[in-house]
């Protein structure tokens, strides 16, 4: 009988290692860092996203960055997420206000030292005056003077959201326009991405990815430049997810079973956040 239980344990451990390997599979090897690699001693990292909850894709990394007093984290959000799901918790007309509050709570968890939320239309950025959006982006850049920006990529927008893609295109346009301006503070622009293994699993399990992710491989996510190990701060990432309580159905879809098992076990498997370098100077 003891031998049977030992066999089951061995098989279970083997299965866990197999799943972990599958999640982090890439054709090319990727360097895994314990924290986000930074060149300077003091850094201002700005997260520039269209929606409350977009920071969840990098929440573990942000929390780790916030634990170093030489780093300042700033969150800038273009919309209040009023086009999203209410989760049955608030009236539709109150959703933008509620999601702003959720973002404030999540921001405290990941370590934002400052938070700015604009009122551009959720799911309407492609039809919004790009000059108006870029003007506010530039104002935030010169107000906080970040040397690093984390936003989305301009092809897939992580999973095909048009607001994500527009946000990335505009900030990259700003970067290129100002790359030779001495007073322009940004040195590097990054986006969250996925390992090849994670993307494959997302496309097989997540209705969000199945519905929205580009079918054309040339319009997919950029290859990862590196990954950050987050298993030790999985509980913080879970807390940030839970802060966005109206969006529970979305997170149940993109992080299946995250609310059913221990965060220590869940983020032992989903133990990395991947990043791609989009621009540098």
CATH classification class = Alpha Beta
Structural class: alpha/beta
Strand content: 5-15%
Major beta-sheet overview: 8 strands, mixed
Mean pLDDT: 92
Count the helices. How many? 11
Global shape: globular
Q: Which CATH architecture?
A: 3-Layer(aba) Sandwich
**Uncertain regions: pLDDT < 50 for 5+ in a row?**
4-13
Give the ordered list of helices and strands: HEEHEHEHEHHEHHEHHHE
Multimer state: single chain
How many separate domains?
Answer: 1
Helix content: 40-55%
Key phrases:
43% helix; 281 residues; alpha/beta; Rossmann fold
Write up what this structure looks like.
The chain is an alpha/beta fold. The protein has one domain (40-280): Rossmann fold, CATH 3.40.50.10320. It contains 11 helices and 8 strands. It has helices at residues 2-23, 59-66, 95-110, 130-144, 157-160, 162-178, 196-205, 207-212, 234-243, 248-254, 263-269, and strands spanning 32-33, 43-49, 71-77, 114-117, 148-150, 188-193, 226-229, 272-280. Strands 1-7-8-6-5-2-3-4 form an 8-stranded mixed beta sheet, with helices on both faces. Strand 2 (43-49), helix 2 and strand 3 form a beta-alpha-beta unit. Helix 3 runs antiparallel to helix 9. The N and C termini lie far apart (63 Å).
Summarize the structure.
This protein is of the alpha/beta class and 281 residues long. It contains eleven helices and eight strands.
Fold topology:
Elements (H helix, E strand, L loop, with lengths): L1 H22 L8 E2 L9 E7 L9 H8 L4 E7 L17 H16 L3 E4 L12 H15 L3 E3 L6 H4 L1 H17 L9 E6 L2 H10 L1 H6 L13 E4 L4 H10 L4 H7 L8 H7 L2 E9 L1
Parallel strand pairs: 1-7, 2-3, 2-5, 3-4, 5-6
Antiparallel strand pairs: 6-8, 7-8
Helix pairs in contact: 3-9
């Amino acid at each position: 009988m003891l031998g049977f239980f030992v066999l089951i344990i061995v098989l279970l451990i083997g299965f866990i290692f197999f799943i972990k390997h599958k999640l982090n599979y890439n054709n090319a090897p990727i360097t895994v860092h314990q924290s986000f690699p930074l060149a300077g001693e003091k850094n201002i990292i700005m997260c520039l996203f269209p929606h409350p909850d977009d920071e969840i894709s990098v929440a573990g990394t942000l929390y780790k960055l916030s634990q170093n007093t030489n780093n300042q984290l700033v969150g800038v959000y273009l919309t209040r997420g009023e086009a999203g799901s209410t989760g049955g918790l608030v009236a539709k007309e109150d959703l933008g206000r509620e999601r702003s509050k959720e973002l404030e709570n999540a921001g405290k968890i990941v370590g934002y030292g400052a938070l700015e939320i604009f009122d551009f239309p959720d799911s309407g950025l492609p039809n919004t005056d790009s000059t108006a959006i870029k003007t506010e982006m530039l104002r935030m850049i010169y107000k906080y003077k970040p040397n690093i920006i984390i936003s989305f990529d301009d092809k897939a927008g992580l999973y095909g959201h048009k607001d994500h893609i527009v946000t990335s295109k505009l900030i990259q346009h700003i970067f290129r326009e100002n790359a030779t301006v001495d007073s322009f503070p940004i040195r590097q622009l990054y986006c969250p991405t996925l390992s090849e293994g994670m993307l494959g699993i997302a496309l097989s399990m997540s209705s969000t990815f199945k519905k929205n992710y580009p079918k054309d491989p040339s319009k997919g996510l950029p290859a990862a430049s590196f990954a950050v190990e987050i298993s030790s701060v999985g509980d913080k990432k879970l807390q940030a997810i839970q802060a966005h309580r109206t969006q529970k159905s979305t997170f149940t879809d993109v992080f299946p079973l995250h609310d059913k098992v221990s965060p220590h076990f869940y983020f032992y498997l989903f133990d990395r956040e991947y990043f791609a370098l989009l621009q540098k100077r």
